[in-house]
Amino acid sequence: MFSALMDKVLAQLSQELPFVVYSKPDERVVKAIFQEDAKIHTISDFTETGFVFAPFDSESPAILIKNTETPEATEYPFETEAYEHPTVPLADTSQKKFHIQLVEKAVAKIKTTDLEKVVLSRRLNVPCTTHVIELFRRILARYPNAFRYLWYHPKVGCWLGATPEILVSIENKRFTSMSLAGTKPYVEGGTPSWGKKEQEEQKLVTDYMKSVLKGKTVDLQVATPETVRAGNLWHLQTRLSGRTKGNPNDLIKALHPTPAVCGSPMLMAKNFILTNENYPREFYTGFLGELNFINEINRTSDKNNRENKAYRAVKASTSLFVNLRCMQVLEDNVLLYVGGGITAASDPIGEWEETVNKSKTMLQVLTKA
């Protein structure tokens, strides 16, 4: 039962032991992996098995919670929950000024150098004393189409979120990925009109992903861009799929960070972010999810078949999501992370307002229904 699983989560928290509890998009199943000690396990080459939690900076270690057993799973018993539109906290005047000036600096650099796009972000410090289990329950109920999670390690921190973006999904040799760029507020009954800025941003991300996947995949398919909804926002999305060539784990290292969370060219954009953003992103715009899970599939539904084992297939699967729409939980406050892609066509005030709109996704979690 869901309540019993949450009791185990509470016990892990009280004993200061690592765990992750999560639910995939459009699923009611909640899975949990519990670690028996407080040791930090890190990724060396992405051939490991477990739940990976990776930071934005790929030079920093990715954390692994090993799944020595099949993850515990149950269904959550509640339906999708309505909520009040949150009140966005008044922005600190100095933070607003800093972000607008940072966008202006980025636009100037884009116009005078080879930098094409850079993703700039900021974080909000919001008072919060609501227990993390209640916050996770709200995320499950309010964002059923997203990847929802609560992750904790006593030596690293506590994070939770609801992200709409797949980094990569790999099943044996087949993979799916997406480029997600362009954002507009969701309006009931309406559909967004995408302007030049959003279309160029989407194309930059898609073109980059095609270039890094080209030498590592075969039969690469790129779908037509489509409009998708994530909470109170519209996004422009393009799906990419195909088969891996060589080690499937090479895709992970090639794709992260994408221009959707960093920029293009990647190294130039990353350097601009680390030099100018003025705060540590940590795990925001990193990635997380199931890494190299092994599942057995019965090819026959006849449970009485004595030769049933001969009809079983072993499936290796990886399912990773970009860590967007997330928060870091501290003692009596939370840090919310928001950002947006900057191109030559960006309007600094409009980019500030986009971060305000994006902040509402996690602020809704802090608002009681």
Automatic annotation (TrEMBL):
Alphabetized SUPFAM superfamilies for the sequence: ADC synthase
Residue ranges constituting the Chorismate-utilising enzyme C-terminal domain according to the UniProt record: 99-293, 315-358
One Pfam short name: Chorismate_bind
InterPro entries in UniProt: ADC_synthase, Chorismate_C
PANTHER family per UniProt: ISOCHORISMATE SYNTHASE ENTC
Protein name: Chorismate-binding protein
Species of provenance: Pelagihabitans pacificus
